[in-house]
Amino acid sequence: MKNITVIGSGTMGNGIAHTFAQNGFNVSLVDINESALQKALQTISTNLDRQIKKGAIEESAKAATLANIKTFTNINEGAATAELVVEAATENRDIKLKLFKQLSEICKDNAILASNTSSISITEIAAVTTNPGNVIGMHFMNPVPVMKLIEVIRGYATTDTVTNTIIDLSRQLGKEPVEVNDYPGFVANRILMPMINEAIYTLFEGVAGVYEIDTVMKLGMAHPMGPLQLADFIGLDVCLAILKVLHAGFGNSKYAPCPLLVNMVTAGHLGVKTGSGFYTYTPGSKDLVVAPKFV
Ligand SMILES: NC(=O)c1ccc[n+]([C@@H]2O[C@H](COP(=O)([O-])OP(=O)(O)OC[C@H]3O[C@@H](n4cnc5c(N)ncnc54)[C@H](O)[C@@H]3O)[C@@H](O)[C@H]2O)c1
Predict the structure, then answer these.
(1) How far is the CA of 53 from the centre of ligand 1 (A)?
(2) What's residue 284's pLDDT?
């Protein structure tokens, strides 16, 4: 396998493209938005500089990695020769179903179609394609070049061959694949999102402030980052979308999104990507500049 198409060049898409390109794959990065593609190339370049500075890669790896990435706004051109597509477009069911229907018409019959969805059913996505056995979940973690885990999600129809190919490929990327079955939130978000939602409820109910909640979880539970800061990094819109899937999928009120999260998303305060969430950030940077807003 050599030709990989990544659909969506946002937070996750740029990291997935970076990781495949750094490991010698030809990457076609597709987004409907040209400025998102340019921003992704800029982010990849900055992240490669950071890896060089840390001594994680050689200086020469930067040019080689960037040379492996081509960008497209036209999905027909970007996906035609793909052996594997990794879809990392916006977490929206209708967008993903439309994309997979389109991909199954554009791509070769034996192409594997993977989704990086955090919560949408792989079985449902597969059902709109002509070859559901070739559809699988490949759930990378943020930031992709750094995080070791890939949650490999088997849909109802996913074949053993496709699962084993994705497990081998994940190891080629230096990642640790973990195989799970297709139920709402899979494993990672079924456990993580209720914790983040509970942290938001704790803030909403005035039990403690942002700093206090994150500090309890960092120093008390040895989490590298507090749940509210983590929510900012993931994107509050993404967190809300996943909670809605858990709520609808299990029909259990324990997954109901906190009204404060709903309000923040409605107001466009989406975390790092908009410069404002539970914390505020320097535009275009992940550095915290202002301590907690709600104290
Ligand atoms: N953010 C995280 O920490 C995280 C972690 C794991 C998985 N995910 C999943 O990864 C996926 C992407 O999330 P993100 O945080 O990168 O989102 P994002 O909002 O940062 O980026 C999404 C990108 O998709 C593009 N897009 C939308 N519709 C498209 C289409 N039809 N064709 C091509 N491009 C399209 C948008 O222009 C945007 O650039 C989601 O399914 C999300 O659930 C996110």
Answers:
(1) 28
(2) 62
